[in-house]
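User: Just a sanity check before I run the rest of the batch. Below are the structure tokens for the first item. I only need the designed sequence back.
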């Protein structure tokens, strides 16, 4: 599966305005956005480097062709936002909520996404690589193309989230829980099978 990368042609380094109405072809470096509110705006063709979003608020925001590198989104709400061709690289997203969010051609690379919530989200051509999503929740999540490589899914919860065809063979699944809807058709390796066979009510005799 090929993930389209952000299409950013040029950017101008800038300082974030107090009340942003739209952001286009801007680059932000080393800032901390405290109580700033992003409300009903479009963020298009922008780069954010080493930015801390602290207690920023995002509502009705659409992000298109955006790069986030070394940024901190911990404990923020991205509920119901739209992400198209967005790359998160080496970002901290502990406890971030993505409930009802829409992802299309989005990559998470070397990110800490522990304790996050992707319930009711739609993932279309999404990639997680070299990241941790431990103790995260996927409830009624719609999967339309998901690729995972070297990801820790320990203690995650998957309910009513069909994963048929998704290859978890390079990932850690210890103590993860899946219902039958989610489990059916997953691709795993022989070492992972004993971790999941108990969910089927089957016991392995030594």
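Assistant: Here's the designed sequence for the first item:
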């Amino acid at each position: 599966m090929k993930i389209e990368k952000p299409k950013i042609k040029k950017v101008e380094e800038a300082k974030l305005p107090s009340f942003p109405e739209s952001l286009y072809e801007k680059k932000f470096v080393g800032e901390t956005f405290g109580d700033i509110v992003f409300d009903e705006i479009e963020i298009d063709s922008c780069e954010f480097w080493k930015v801390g979003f602290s207690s920023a608020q995002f509502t009705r925001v659409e992000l298109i062709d955006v790069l986030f590198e070394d940024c901190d989104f911990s404990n923020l709400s991205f509920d119901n936002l739209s992400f198209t061709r967005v790359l998160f690289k080496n970002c901290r997203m502990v406890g971030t909520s993505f409930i009802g969010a829409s992802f299309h051609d989005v990559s998470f690379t070397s990110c800490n996404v522990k304790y996050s919530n992707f319930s009711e989200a739609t993932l279309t051509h999404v990639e997680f690589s070299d990241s941790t999503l431990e103790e995260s929740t996927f409830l009624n999540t719609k999967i339309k193309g998901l690729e995972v490589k070297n990801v820790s899914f320990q203690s995650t919860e998957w309910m009513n989230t069909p994963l048929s065809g998704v290859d978890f063979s390079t990932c850690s699944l210890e103590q993860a829980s899946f219902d039958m809807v989610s489990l059916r058709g997953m691709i795993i390796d022989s070492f992972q099978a004993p971790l999941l066979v108990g969910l089927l009510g089957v016991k392995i005799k030594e």
